[in-house]
Amino acid sequence: MVQAIRIHANGGPEALSWDTITVGEPGPGEVRVRHKAIGLNFIDVYFRSGLYPPPAPFPFIPGSEGVGIVEAVADGVSELKVGDRVGYAGSIGSYCEARLIPADRLVPIPDTIGDSTAAAVLLKGMTARYLLRETFKVGPSTTVLFHAAAGGVGLIASQWAASLGGTVIGTVGSQEKADLALANGCAHVINYRTEDFVARVSEITGGRKVDVVYDSVGKDTFPGSLDCLRPRGLWVSFGQSSGSVPPFDIGILNRKGSLFATRPSLFGYVAERTDLLKTAADLFATIASGAISVPEPQTFALSDVAAAQTALEERRTTGSVVLLP
């Protein structure tokens, strides 16, 4: 018997129930992982609130990122063994002390990276990787607008983009977060609470605007994000922390400069195991090179996840948040 957070019906933080569950033996292709650290992400809030459809029948265990130790392996699984340190991102069901998970969704964690750091960086870092290296290839001539630059993905992506030679303009909601973003890769920071980010982007770039906007905010930054793009620029909508982007006439992309728009997800880039391993390896190598510095994450006990999600929703967190079983 282990403890887990389950959601029996959509709602606020009070919908997160501290339950006792049974975890059986791994079936074909599975292993059992004992969690050491669990990542907290905005998608967890979306599933709890009902903004996203439930990923499984009620009651379900939320959470999509974890790091731990393999404690049981099914017959036929040859790539992993008991005692291996592993992590994953994108497999729903991490808010628990232990779980079963398909072996092909796990990646090895280097000895040089601690459990909390790995849980803080795996989903967010692999997200940053596909955004910067796949969705739009950032390079020395690229100017980027990254919303929520002091968030978990933003801090990693801003550093990574700067290491690739890009110029990063970040938006934040406070002076404290502005200072943090400037220390982590942003060349310019805009406080959207006190400044018009569209006007400031135009001013910073001398009217040229940016090549790509990475937008995880959604409702509050649309359609302003489009007004920050140069002709034929790319708007990458990869989250909606302020609410869903409202339905819009696709003709707006033409009127604002023959723009491109995409709504990607991490799973779309790591569905194949070879891509998953390549993405994780590139992330860990970039951390090892010193191009990305991962701040010590904020931590909450798994049983206090309601407080952790509330802090995340109210934008009182900086960087990453990790739950400890």
Q: Give the tally of structural domains.
A: 2
Structural class: alpha/beta
Separation of termini?
A: 14 Å
In the predicted model, the low-confidence regions spanning at least 5 consecutive residues are: none
Q: Counting H and I runs of at least 4 residues, what is the number of helices?
A: 10
| Global mean pLDDT | 96
CATH topology of the largest domain: Quinone Oxidoreductase, Chain A, domain 1
Given the C-alpha coordinates, what overall shape results? globular
Strand count, sense and barrel status of the largest sheet are: 7 strands, mixed
Element pattern in H and E: EEEHEEEEHEHEHEHEHEHEHHEHE
The CATH class name of the largest domain reads: Alpha Beta
Report the radius of gyration as a whole number of Å: 20 Å
Under the CATH scheme, the architecture of the largest domain is: Alpha-Beta Complex
Number of strands: 15
CATH homologous group name of the largest domain: Medium-chain alcohol dehydrogenases, catalytic domain
User: How much helicity do the residues have?
Assistant: 25-40%
Q: Proportion of β residues? A: 25-35%
Description:
InterPro entries: ADH-like_C, ADH-like_N, ER, GroES-like_sf, NAD(P)-bd_dom_sf, QOR-like. Residues 11-323 form the Enoyl reductase (ER) domain. Keywords: NADP, Oxidoreductase. It comes from Kaistia dalseonensis. It holds the Pfam family ADH_zinc_N. This protein is an alpha/beta fold. It folds into two domains: 2-121 and 270-324, Quinone Oxidoreductase, Chain A, domain 1; 140-263, Rossmann fold (3-Layer(aba) Sandwich). It contains ten helices and 15 strands. The protein has helices spanning 42-49, 115-135, 152-163, 175-182, 197-204, 224-227, 251-255, 266-270, 273-289, 305-313, and strands at residues 2-7, 16-21, 30-40, 65-73, 85-89, 98-102, 107-108, 143-146, 167-172, 188-191, 210-215, 229-237, 260-262, 298-301, 321-324. Strands 3, 4, 5, 6, 7, 14 and 15 form a seven-stranded mixed sheet that branches. Helix 7 (251-255) links the parallel strand 12 and strand 13. Helix 2 (115-135) packs across helix 9. The longest helix has 21 residues, at 115-135. It starts with a strand and ends with a strand.
